[in-house]
């Protein structure tokens, strides 16, 4: 029964993550001029689903009360989250779905760097080696290749979005622990504040960038099929909410190592589906890059499992969040939250 539970959770996590990446990409291809509106709708759907979950959970899920003092305390983590999500969305819009994981390949090294600077500590040599492996994989994947035509090569701007997305994910990982006490150490309450706050912060930029006018122009175009945008927004909003649960369940029910191997398997499937469905170009350099990044990431996860002794946690959500910081953030797309 335990093995079946683990398999079900891992499959749930992998399917949710895969659906998020590819439906996101399909929507951004269909409506490339309104990425911020797309992101805003996803955030609002997540907030609505959290409220519905609280209604049917009979107290198991608690929605926090609006408190200006707490909102000010959580402003850093919320603002970093939405900036990272914007860069994440812009990166996915500009690169192939299979190349997306390479473009965001610096999440682990930057997280280690930011965490070390924040705690004024020096990571172990093994951690530095893992970081160097992942960085090498990233450089290998983004290096110019004569086998990649100019039309298929990612732009420097898209790569810049990927690096900035990775950097803000790193800042977000550091801020999570300091933010949880303001949410009663509840990851669910922090998720509510993050999604609701991010929606409020991004709304003015949606207007300033003129995306409502762009969306109205697309709707007036008889050749534009709004089905992909509408259904894609609903699906990604729903599965983005599920992905929060899936990642946490994957850590709780399995182990960080098992979770990371499921992430690796998802990355391989993501590449295969990207090549098959979207016609993405996969070269030897890109394939090797993905393997090297995954290898360095799994090596890091193994190191942290060995170096960090298990400690008892009084709050299961708090325990889950600590493990997520070490393992899950590497490949979540805080896309969610990648």
UniProtKB/TrEMBL annotation:
Residues 7-300 form the Sugar phosphate transporter domain. GO terms for cellular component: membrane. The chain crosses the membrane at residues 6-24, 36-54, 74-92, 99-118, 124-143, 155-176, 196-215, 227-251. Keywords: Membrane, Transmembrane, Transmembrane helix. It is a multi-pass membrane protein. It is found in: Membrane. InterPro entries: Sugar_P_trans_dom, TPT_transporter. Its main location: membrane. This is Sugar phosphate transporter domain-containing protein.
